[in-house]
Amino acid sequence: SYVLRHARSRNYVSESEVCKLESVPLDFGDYHPLKPITVTESKTKKMNRKGSTSSTSSSSSSSMMDPLSSVLDGTDPLSLFAAAADPVTAAPATDGARRKRDKDESSAVGSDFEPWSSKRGEILARYTTTEKLSIVSGGFHRKATTAGSAVSEKVRTRLEELDDLEEGSQKELLNLTQQDYMNRIEELNQSLKDAWSSDQKVKALKIVIQCSKLLSDTTVIQFYPSKFVLITDILDTFGKLVYERILSMCVDNRVSLPDNFSPESVNDTAKETCLNWFFKIASIRELIPRFYVEAAILKCNKFLSKTGISECLPRLTSMIRGIGDPLVAVYARAYLCRVGMEVAPQLKESLNKNFFDFLLTFKQIHGDTVQNQLVVQCVEIPLYLTLYSPAIDWILQCIAYHAPDILLTEMMERCKKLGNNALLLNSVMSAFRAEFIAARSMDFIGMIKECDESGFPKHLLFRSLGLNLALADPPENDRLQILNEAWKVITKLKNPQDYINCAEVWVEYTCRHFTKREVNTVLADVIKHMTPDRAFEDAYPQLQSIIQKVITYIYDFALLFSVEKFLPFLDMFQKESVRVEVCKCIMESFIKHQQESTKDPVILNALLHICKTMHDSVNALTLEDEKRMLAALINGFIKMVSFGRDFEQQLSFYVEARSMFCNLEPVLVQLIHSVNQLAMETRRVMKGNHSRKTAAFVRACVAFCFITIPSLSSIFTRLNLYLHSGQVALANQCLSQGKA
Fold this sequence. Notes:
Number of strands: 2
Family: Belongs to the VPS35L family.
Radius of gyration: 37 Å
Strand order of the largest sheet: 1-2
Main location: other
Strand content: under 5%
Protein name: VPS35 endosomal protein-sorting factor-like
Helix content: 55-70%
Number of helices: 36
InterPro entries: VPS35L
Subcellular location: Endosome
Distance between the termini: 87 Å
């Protein structure tokens, strides 16, 4: 007899838990096996440091010096390979905590705050020059040192290097073009990273000092805003490298600091290194490099004390008072605001003090010193004043961020009391909330009227006001008066480019709040200004923007085409590629917003003309995707045309469309389907019993298909349409046509 054996029941999950290897959580922090290790004695607080710039790691597990690392001065051959990597890009994979901290700090201000990075490209593109530039280049060479050099020798070498910086080891590169200058700045940025990664911290500091000194040079004044952007990129890199360096020294037992660490949790080595950096910077003789380099590492105050940043900001703000050139000073204030918003956005008092200091020195802009400098450089006052805009806009944006209306009103009143305040007024309108500006539109118009025309151009002020009114609505009773006051100034502009830049902004305001009569008046004025000397050829982007705004707000096409000047406005688009783009925009809007079919002759004639323009742009080089898009827009229009029970008129429209759109096969296919549908609709109306008239009409429909199908190139499309059309013919008792 057989004994039935059953497998014993097992709990695989619990067995797996028991048998698997024990997992130990590891956080390597800044640990890397190739990094140099210096084993220090834990019984004493005196650090055996080889200079503040060497990599150190404290360990209390041993009280004796490692004989190998002491011979190699803390640098073994393998670690040299690791040091060659860029410290910015070669961070360990386990450095997630640091990345998270950076992300949290960068998001201390909300997403509604426009970051500096978004303004950077615009400044570089706007402030250019064709004049020759010069740059002072330091002799940044690395002196060869032996591996076992003594501490005193290292210190002496570094002091000599810093002295070299002051004693003129630099050479001046002259006659550089703007692109050469930008390339040279980029080389310095890369040199900074290379010097840092090769543990040459003094050289890195020299590069940053050298770059900061360039910000005191205003010999090519119209390029200064772009120079500021390029050099502060280097300062930002330096500040990040120093902060990451000190942060890496705070790693204890491979555990990095928490995100919101306190100075008490920072070890003595990191604090000493941090202080050493501040002492080095404090010894820089010149004010401008000392200010910029200290501002760049402002964030490092977090390692020393809780109140470090709040104490430094007012001191740095006061330091700017020592900068004599008002343009250099205002950009220094902008940089301090930028750094302040990154590291301590809650300290708004210092930002406000910074701006009020600027207001006190505002009259310097119109002083004799500046006037003499402008005469030498042949720069006009209006152009000079626009150089201030990026800096003042940024300062005011930082101050206005989540600021109460009381503060904004106070600042507006202070600006109003100053003479020649058009520059400030423009920045206020650029930086303050659109709702705040819109609610006080008439006050701003009054201030704009009082501005001196010889200084900051008034049309730029009205453009800034118009940009705000496009985002927020002014009081209803003031709307017409605002438009009249603005257009009085805009229509008097002689320069077509200045005119169209303003008109483009105010068209949106007109479309939002007024009827087709006012829109027609504005379009007529634009045509009047842009037609002479074919000025429209240089303003296609602005003219396209105007069309886009008009069809955004007036999407009833019966109303749109009743605007008398709309079609003449389209005639200004003479360049074919631009004209086709505009036509596509109009057709997309029609298909999107037209809810019901139409037979309005005005709409049909206008849109047929627009579709014809799109069709005629097709040639042998047109891409298939482009053809498909144009065909889809034209088909969308054809489907929306309906003459109701007037079937003969409908067929006439399809015949006309076939003659106009013969180069786009998808349109011909759509027309064949539409005509077949028309024949079946006739059969449905007649309930299958055709009269002589309807029988002739149906035969005409079948003949349309019979003639059109052979012109198609796709065999299978032709086959399907023949089958479909034959069935329609037979259903309508057109036997001979169906057989054919």
